User: Fold these one by one.
Assistant:
Number 1:
Amino acid sequence: MPSLCAAELWRRSERWDLMGRDLFRLKDRHDAEYCLGPTHEEAITELLASQGHLSHKQLPLLLYQVTRKFRDEPRPRFGLLRGREFYMKDMYTFDTSEEAAHLTYQTVCQAYTRLFARLGLNCVQVQADTGNIGGKLSHEFQLPAEVGEDRLLVCGDCAFSANVETMEPGQTDCPQCHKGTLTESKGIEVGHTFYLGTKYSHIFNATFSNPQSKPVVAEMGCFGLGVTRILAAAIEVLSTEDAIHWPGLLAPYQVCILPPKRGSKVGHLEGLAEELCRSLGSAIPGLRGEVVLDDRTQLTIGKRLKDAGCLGYPYVIVVGQSAAEDLPRFEVRCQQSGETMFLSREGLMDL
Ligand SMILES: [Zn+2]
């Protein structure tokens, strides 16, 4: 979907006015109006409608992209946590009936839950407001954190949780189990799901032909993951004062290798470090492209170890003094356990 979106589409859905100052607006040389897309319900529904009738056999249809989005935030802050330009995974779904759309909705929510679990992030799915996207049903995926800007109410007795925005002011009794009390915490929104019904498909005439070959307006959902915000939020909740801790799957590199300082007593091991870097990356399928060599060998190992800690590599391997001994050993530091091990080459490959 294009970043540059025609105002005409947004006027048809009445969101040109509804979005207010959140929308980045601009004009071309002929004075035609555009916005920088903060989301793409209009564009994708129009695209689908322009293709003519879909068959009911082609549904459900789930279309997604990962692109830059733009939002004129009143208070951009905390770097990638709340920026005016960010990456989002957005998906739009088309179904034959309300029932089918609900099933798609549940399926995607379950996929989001699994995704956050695999990242090792303790995410909660909360009932949410549909805001300016609209629709009938909505959930947010929230990462509990002190710097979070959303306020959540979580029940102590059942699985109920909600964004404060969706609740009566001052409500402390759980509306689901009626016995638990709701406690408030702060959260960072990292995902958002909406069951839209026919709000957009009706306006843009996105239809499919049913088994009797009659055109029927499609039921829609939309689903977003804040890709760049997940990076920042994960670091925010997992890190300590002096070191970044990445979820293993998100760490830019799994392993950092430190060759000795140039000109030191073991300076001749620089080649060994380079060779180790190449062979780890090629011998172990999961490490392809995941091993980096800190070849700033004008710096001491101590200085580079400190930097490696700050950058949060899950594993750091030092090729130093102990690698020059008769039984060469590599010093391996594991960030997650805080352990330091001295391993032979075989031991290292096993690890
Ligand atoms: Zn409850």
Number 2:
Amino acid sequence: MNQKLLDAVNNAIEIARWAPSSHNCQPWKVITLESAGKQYDVLLDKPLKSNELLCCLALDKKRQLNALPSLRFEMYVSCGLFLGLFWLAVTQQKVRCRFHWLCDTELNLSWLQLASEHESELLVAMTLSTEDFEADNEYQVSRTTSRLNQLLELVSTRRTFRGLFQDDLFDQETISNLLSNHWPQLLTGLEASAHFEQDIDHIHGVTQLVAKYAALDFSSYRAWKETYRYLRFDLQDNAEDGFYLQSLFGPMPKRKIKFYEYILSPLVMQMLRLVNVPQHMATELSKLVDKSAQLLIIKLNKEHLSKRNLVMTGARLMEIWLQAHHMGVALHPISVLLQHDEPRETLQSLLQCHNERIVFVARAGYINTAASVSPRRPVQSIHTAVGS
Ligand SMILES: Cc1cc2nc3c(=O)[nH]c(=O)nc-3n(C[C@H](O)[C@H](O)[C@H](O)COP(=O)(O)O)c2cc1C
């Protein structure tokens, strides 16, 4: 197998694994094929050469969230976030990357077999090749290493921030920097439209929607049971996925953590509905929304809601999220508004989205707090190299 390309893939996964995902479930899988062979050629624009490597990004069926039908959308967007960082890291190593979309396409038996062997849904295959065949000199190697280290530093310090933001309203220059588009269209597509909502009436409207509907998250037994599986209570337990209680509520003593572990458990939460605890939590979340100066909204035309466009939207979101982090801006997604039809449709009419579906909504603002811990799976659990 082309060891140089395999090393580049592993380096890229080391970076891409820091992509955000719903509940930090990290639903991605990377499969590389040593010899793509004729059976896979059918979807590739030309047969694979000996110095090329075929690398597939897939949705890992064992890791996907499925308590609500709308979570399918979040799974494709999450894989797109990973794909964006993967592309960035692989091309930083002077590796060329040609995309062959596998989702929304009729796959032949060999592809289907590959998907079923790996219990996954194939999303996109990438033909990777080195840009030149000259042996890299020491200077080039050290430049690539330093670029990758800088990128790793940036991606591994980005965090979802769930506290109060500074109340600055972004000015036009900041917004155009945040939304500037440098990644290729073949990766991010053209369909997703992103903007920052700053209209005070709209923010109040969204606040009311959160107060009214966010309890759905906490009081739906099935949805909360799945969320609770991803809550981590012990910072010492070396988790590989999920999110720590502290990243929701800030640092707290052990006694209080134990208390939350108990009261947040799904059965207890069901009982606490009788005394309106889910409603109280929704109200607290809505206060954060009310104090936000802006919301990031990403939408897709309803006619363009394909899996491929959702993955591409994820890549576009990653470009914005990374640029935001670079500028000291953090995001806090409020997905409960999108996970149920009624709040989503009300939100869409509030924001005058005609014939468009909102696929991502987040509070956005400057922060000056240190990053909290966010666990990740190791590279070897994400990557499977298949021999011929
Ligand atoms: C599509 C998507 C939806 C998300 N929805 C929420 C949400 O509703 N509430 C929340 O607090 N975090 C949400 N998150 C943030 C994830 O929980 C977070 O990315 C993950 O726990 C990893 O943490 P990190 O972003 O700090 O690395 C969402 C992330 C993604 C990608």
Number 3:
Amino acid sequence: MPLNNLCRRLIMNRLGYLLCLLVVGLLLFIPAGARAQVIPAPEDILGFKVGADYHLITYDQAIDYLKKVASVSDRIRLKEIGQTTLGLPMYCAIISSADNLASLEKYQEIIKKLSLARGLSPEEALRLSAQGKAVVYIDGGLHASECAPAQHLVQLAYDLVSGRDEKTLRILDQVICLLVFANPDGMNLLADWYHKNVGTPFEVSPLPYLYHYYAGHDNNRDSYLANLKETQHLTRLVNQEWYPVILYNHHQTAPFPARIWIPPNSEPTNPNVHPLIVRWQNLIGSAMGAAFDSEGKEGAISRIFFDTWYPGYVTQVVDSHNIISILTETALYRYATPRFYTVRDFPPEYQDLTMSAFYPSPWKGGWWRLRDAVDYCLTASKAVLEVAAKYRQELLFNKYKMASEVMARFQKEPPYAWIIPRAQTDPGNLALLLNRLILLGIEVYEAQEDFTCDGLSYPRGTLVIPMSQPFALFAKNMLEEQRYPDLRKYPDLWQGLVQSRKIEGSPLEAYDMMGWTLSYQFNLKIQAASSLVSAKLTPLPVVNPPAGKVEGSGSAAFLLDHGQNASFVAMNRILKQKGKIAWARKSFTHDGQSYPEGTIIVSSVSRDFMDKLARDLSLKIQASGSRPTVETIEVKAPRLGVYQSWVAVEDEGWTRFILDEHEFSYKSLHDADIKAGHLASQYDTIVIPDHYSPELLLHGYRKGDMPPDYVGGLTERGVNNLKQFVKEGGTLVFLNTSCNLATGQFQPAVRNLLEKAKRDEFNCSGSILLAEFDRTHPVAYGMDSQQPVVFAESCAFDVFPSFAQKSSPRIVAKYAGDNLLLSGWIHGEKLIQQKAAIVDIPLEKGKLILLGFPVQFRAQSRGTFKLLFNAIFYGTVK
Ligand SMILES: [Zn+2]
């Protein structure tokens, strides 16, 4: 942008600021009764209009503005709902008529009763539906680089709070709107980055770090497990407090050249939703489409690209809670920079502007500015609110209808319940999963007596999730095995009219995971009941793991189970206390008890310290007056580096998440740190997280695409330094596809046979497979001999014997032969059956550890975290 424009904008900002001072000053002199009429417009406070070119509202500014509006209006309340990962307060803006806000608790109670349905007759439900208000949740900014949705919330709040027209008054009368900025940290980070670059050659450069501290773009994929604080707050708001009739989650990645993507959704459809949800999604999508075309806003498209199979998103999670989720994807250029398009910029199939059923008003090109995207978001949000106002009573009654039908259905058909034995490899994992399900609105019970079901006996204390509960479909969605439909079978049924594709060989891929079964990801044994459970059950508000304690006497040695994730927290605390830790290389007997290989033997710590550790971490620890006689390896506090590319990748963030959660100390290493060398003197282990491609790892952003500090990648020099690190005894751990950098650059006697595989030969973009582990290898200590693992565009290795190296690679895990697929979809499975999945490759004094599948997938695959933790500690064994 020319400098004079920049100056003009700065002057305008200053003028705007003065104007805002004037408005606020004036407000103070207006009597309270009249004051309610004067709502400051966003531009009065911000100094620029929402969606103005080159201007983004930060989260802090947005909340300041809403607070000012709330101080002069009786149509809005701001409620703090928790803190973000980086410590900002998160708010929900509750907007409705003054009368409704005065009776908020009453309406909250009505919608809760209808949503939970229990004890209500249809007549009572009808009566409550007539009295209640339609609660509609609308968020923006979950994906911070998609700027318009968060910006539009500011304008939407103003329009609703200040509007005097019939439509707005009707919405305010019938609807309670919950407006939420879903990712406050990201909104600030993004605006700061953009404003720093506006007017420079890097105005539209991508953010070189994740816009959520841990999850980046994956914050949406966190919704069914709620690892992140933000997800937990929003989950509580939606599934514990407000039970909205509609949840609208805005995004901004429309399939080009469409200007907005709206429902109906693409296929396949997740089967664990009440059919009314799908019908209303279609209806609301059509209402939005009609709103766009009646306002002359062209380019709304449906039915392609975004399917509802994977339930990890904000939207799909609530579908199985009988909340109608609406996703839209408005068109995005970059941030607040405008862009001009002509038809010649379009893909060929869109150039002749053909009208079709799901794209009846093709966009013809022209300018696209942030304000255009904001206006599209406003039209869409208001269309949703109008539908909610118009069908208020029916939507409320549907909540009751869906919940009671779901409860009745699972009294007549399986699964009748999920039966969860207390005895599991990792009881901490069990408690964590069930507590998250409770947060997500699932009722968990404990049997107060022994019982039998399907011919199996279960003791008192067994946990049960009966399916006769309002959000049972969500539990089913999380715990059953997924059978991804073969999209080749019914082309007419599956394909939208606008996405006709010839499907041969490999089926169409899902937009995200094809299988996700959480009990498999957590390595838990959970049984579906094929008959009704008849036992006395009591509901649990929280599931506690068995209390931890140190058993036995003496303090010469303490023995810990290697199979529990909490044991890794324990090891990190023990090492920080200068305690000593050894891992048994073989199974052994001590004090009359037998222990498996990998057993953790702790010494040089006090009994008091271990007592506290056991209590705090719910661990059973065995004390002994003597050290066991068994061959061991000693592990030390790892000097750990985690590579952080400037091409920000979510896997790096999730890796930090689980390292922080398990109390590892580490340093994030950037390209410059690795290029500076001398790594072996500083680190034992360096982890290279999953990355988009080895080329991007090596070369990073190109010169000119980003400010100079962020270009270039690892480079050959960085790779040479990593090689030197291994030569001098370092351990390099590669995660999932980053293994391709190892096989390409380090010339190990190992090849990823999937690296060049074609889509019609092999395709498994996200499923749960069965793997076999060599439990005598330190990386697999604590694993079961067979366990489910996540596979997502992962690796399968051929290992060649070699004369060139002193010792050959050792296979730590391989994919199963028969019964390979546990959940989801795989095409071409023969290619990877019994092939290596994890390899330990000795190289000079050090080693490469290739973890060929995502062992810490989105911080969800808790059954396999220990493979990474073991590899990190193993790096300290010399
Ligand atoms: Zn998005």
Number 4:
Amino acid sequence: MDLSGKTVVITGAGRGLGAAFALSLAPLGCNLILCGRREADLAAVARSVLSHGGKSAQTVALDLADAASVTEAVARIATFQAPVDILINNGAMWLEASQAPYAEAEVMAVVNAAITGTFLLVQGLRPLMQLSDAPDILTIGSISGLPNAALQTVSVPFYAAKRGQVALAEGLRQEFRGGKFRSILVNPPYLDEAMPGGQSWAANGTRAKNMRATSRDVVEASIFALTRPHHISLTIELGADEGGLFPS
Ligand SMILES: NC(=O)c1ccc[n+]([C@@H]2O[C@H](COP(=O)([O-])OP(=O)(O)OC[C@H]3O[C@@H](n4cnc5c(N)ncnc54)[C@H](OP(=O)(O)O)[C@@H]3O)[C@@H](O)[C@H]2O)c1
């Protein structure tokens, strides 16, 4: 299956894994809609996409922890008047484990971004995705979202939020069975950042056995899943010697 000409919405696209998705999908001929909280970061990624031969990159302000912002983002995406083929639910707020009490706002934001905002975005974009021949919702969960995963350095609110996000993708997969939508779930381990065009991305072939996974592993696993025949909906758990589900 070819991703050329697909319109792809990416959340959390201003940096990290979301930006790596944008720079990887652009050369495959995708039209990108980059969503996130920081417009300057999104604009920088959009410029990079176009300078790497990408066809188009729109930017849309989106705070997944704020339902009103999700509604506004959906309305703005609707003005582009194109079917949305792929939604990549990548944005989620990270919260490290701490001995000190977490701020209320942080706990609300972690849970709301991963679960409430992600679900409302899926729901809001469904009419635009219905216009696609083969709509895909790809959710980036985490190994922390798997039952009985080791907590490692993750806070309990993040752990619970990621479990909820995993459940969301799994629930959608059941709901979509037999229809034209597909839900794909990719659960990364702890990652080292890599960006297309950068050294760590290119160093893929020389990585040692005991290293962490990188953003490239997640992007390539996701593209593999997206290019399977449309009745195949994969859940991919990425293992790694370092930072994986079973810490040393
Ligand atoms: N990095 C890892 O080790 C790792 C491991 C397992 C799973 N993951 C998952 O992979 C995805 C991407 O993470 P990452 O590796 O790029 O690192 P990250 O530091 O966890 O980045 C989180 C991404 O989500 C965005 N985000 C956070 N809160 C948001 C909100 N309220 N609304 C919209 N966007 C929001 C961030 O954008 P801004 O903060 O710039 O707005 C950033 O792009 C996340 O779902 C993360 O949980 C990452």
